């Protein structure tokens, strides 16, 4: 750090700096899909044998992708929580602490991408930056397919996404990146889910100006590419070195004109510090003058924020991530870029992660979220992201004290949001096509119906993580087809899907068209992941029936 401190303000005049730091935070651009939003880096680069990916093998799981990942053949330092993924692929790692086989996911499975984007929706991640490395080699067809899968998931779960080119080791990027955009990736901008800022499709180019052998490019071809994308009508983000403004340390000199050509600047931070004091040092000596430089030139500023490297013990059960979010929001950043969503390779993922050694390969030396002695739920860093997003948008007061507890029960989902919408369901059984998925589809006209003349019956929803809930809303289809009836049912809850306690005892619940065939049941707040309704009677039909199950936080 000390090498940069003396010249940290060199590129910004005193007048510009004072004006930027004493005046109100302002953005060069109005709120859009990246300004005023939480963006997350999405690799989507994991493949496994048998998943159908053109690249074949254990892509990004193993150093030798033609051999299964193991402690001696791996690229990862963290282990994903696999409980919500419908398909896993057996590895050569030791069994988990529970004795279960050690399995990993494939990003090529659409269900994996759908699950990730559902997590983004549920935790305030507005926009995904889909990483795209040199697509002209053997990974190109798989990258192309992943772009289509991400588009589908973003459309389905109401998220935005944009293409983020990484030019690392891309020798012929100057011509090939233009060809790739013109012939393939620009077609994605037709999607309503493709991110736009200032009315223009967003594209990011990451890697110009970095001072390392993988990016040896001179300024001229880099500036040409930036200006070309702008001429195509794009809003262009630059993923730039930490010390971009000064041209020292990780930045090559002579690139300032390239950096200033971007519409938004997003400096890299991963690996730069692992301490709270380090984050504060960067806030004062790097981020503040960075923002001043951008504000003075009408450039939007999107700093990188990170949860910390789990494998190196940086996280401090959420305090590191919250300090980074707090510092960048009080700075007046126009948007935030979270690095990363699914980066299990570098240990800075926010996606759901193994909580303890019980769900981690035994003896493999992989740290779980409780590595510092504090138990953290697998969704903890997603929940911190959700609260950070609220703080960025002014929905949560600016606070240096992390409001998000390591286990669920504090500030989490908004009280008015239905936690059950679109979640996985299960049942004791159903007739014809009246399956349990109908109770979470948002359509009061569709419904679940249990086998007839066979009480008791049950139906349940998996909320994905234990959350303090206090109310459920039950619905049947409205008139004219459905008249009044009373169903005898109990509301039960579980944190593990095996042992259920009673949230609301069995009682007659009156569904009446006069009240929209809707019943609301409240109960004392209880941490619950699985919400089950147990039916033992129905005056209107000899079966359990339900159109919608809505679940709300306490």
Automatic annotation (TrEMBL):
Residues 1-27 form the signal peptide. Transmembrane segments: none annotated. Residues 400-433 are annotated as: Disordered. Keywords: Signal. Residues 402-554 form the F5/8 type C domain. InterPro entries: FA58C, Galactose-bd-like_sf. SUPFAM superfamilies: Galactose-binding domain-like (SSF49785). Pfam families: F5_F8_type_C_2. Residues 402-414 have a biased composition (Pro residues). This is Lectin. SMART domains: FA58C. The lineage of its organism: Bacteria, Bacillati, Actinomycetota, Actinomycetes, Micromonosporales. It comes from the Bacteria. It comes from Plantactinospora mayteni. CDD domains: GH99_GH71_like_2.
């Amino acid at each position: 750090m000390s090498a940069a401190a003396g010249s940290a303000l060199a590129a910004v005049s005193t007048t510009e700096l004072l004006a930027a730091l004493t005046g109100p935070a302002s953005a060069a651009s109005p709120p859009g899909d990246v300004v005023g939003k939480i963006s997350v880096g999405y690799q989507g680069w994991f493949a496994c044998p048998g998943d159908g990916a053109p690249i074949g093998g254990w892509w990004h799981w193993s150093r030798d992708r033609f051999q299964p990942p193991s402690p001696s053949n791996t690229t990862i330092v963290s282990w994903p929580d696999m409980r919500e993924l419908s398909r896993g692929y057996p590895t050569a790692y030791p069994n988990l602490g529970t004795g279960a086989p050690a399995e990993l996911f494939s990003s090529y499975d659409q269900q994996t991408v759908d699950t990730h984007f559902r997590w983004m929706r549920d935790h305030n991640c507005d926009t995904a930056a889909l990483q795209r490395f040199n697509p002209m080699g053997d990974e190109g067809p798989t990258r192309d397919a992943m772009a289509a899968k991400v588009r589908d998931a973003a459309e389905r779960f109401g998220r935005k996404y944009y293409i983020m080119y990484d030019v690392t080791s891309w020798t012929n990027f100057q011509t090939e990146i233009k060809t790739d955009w013109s012939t393939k990736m620009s077609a994605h901008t037709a999607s309503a889910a493709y991110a736009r800022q200032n009315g223009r499709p967003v594209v990011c180019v990451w890697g110009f100006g970095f001072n390392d052998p993988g990016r040896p490019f001179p300024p001229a071809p880099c500036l040409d590419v930036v200006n070309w994308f702008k001429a195509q009508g794009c809003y262009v983000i630059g993923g730039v070195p930490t010390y971009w403004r000064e041209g020292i340390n990780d930045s090559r000199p002579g690139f300032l004109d390239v950096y200033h050509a971007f519409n938004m600047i997003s400096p890299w931070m991963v690996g730069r510090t692992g301490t709270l004091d380090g984050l504060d040092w960067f806030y004062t000596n790097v981020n503040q003058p960075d923002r001043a430089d951008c504000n003075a030139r009408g450039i939007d500023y999107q700093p990188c924020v990170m949860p910390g490297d789990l494998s190196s013990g940086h996280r401090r059960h959420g305090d590191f991530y919250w300090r980074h979010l707090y510092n960048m929001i009080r700075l007046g950043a126009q948007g935030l870029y979270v690095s990363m969503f699914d980066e299990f390779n570098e240990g800075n993922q926010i996606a759901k992660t193994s909580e303890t050694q019980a769900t981690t390969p035994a003896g493999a030396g992989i740290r779980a979220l409780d590595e510092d002695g504090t138990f953290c739920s697998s969704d903890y860093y997603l929940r911190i992201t959700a609260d950070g997003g609220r703080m960025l948008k002014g929905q949560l007061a600016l606070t240096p004290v992390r409001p998000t507890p390591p286990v669920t029960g504090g500030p989490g989902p908004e009280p008015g949001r239905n936690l059950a919408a679109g979640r996985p369901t299960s049942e004791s059984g159903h007739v014809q096509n009246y399956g349990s998925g109908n109770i979470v589809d948002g359509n009061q006209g569709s419904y679940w119906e249990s086998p007839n003349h066979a009480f008791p019956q049950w139906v349940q929803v998996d909320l994905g993580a234990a959350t303090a809930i206090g109310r459920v809303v039950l619905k049947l289809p409205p008139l004219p087809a459905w008249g009044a009836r009373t169903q005898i049912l109990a509301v039960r809850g579980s944190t593990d899907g095996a042992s259920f306690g009673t949230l609301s005892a069995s009682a007659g619940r009156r569904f009446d068209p006069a009240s929209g065939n809707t019943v609301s049941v409240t109960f004392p707040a209880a941490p619950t992941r699985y919400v089950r309704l147990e039916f033992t009677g129905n005056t209107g039909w000899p079966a359990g029936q339900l159109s919608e199950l809505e679940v709300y936080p306490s």
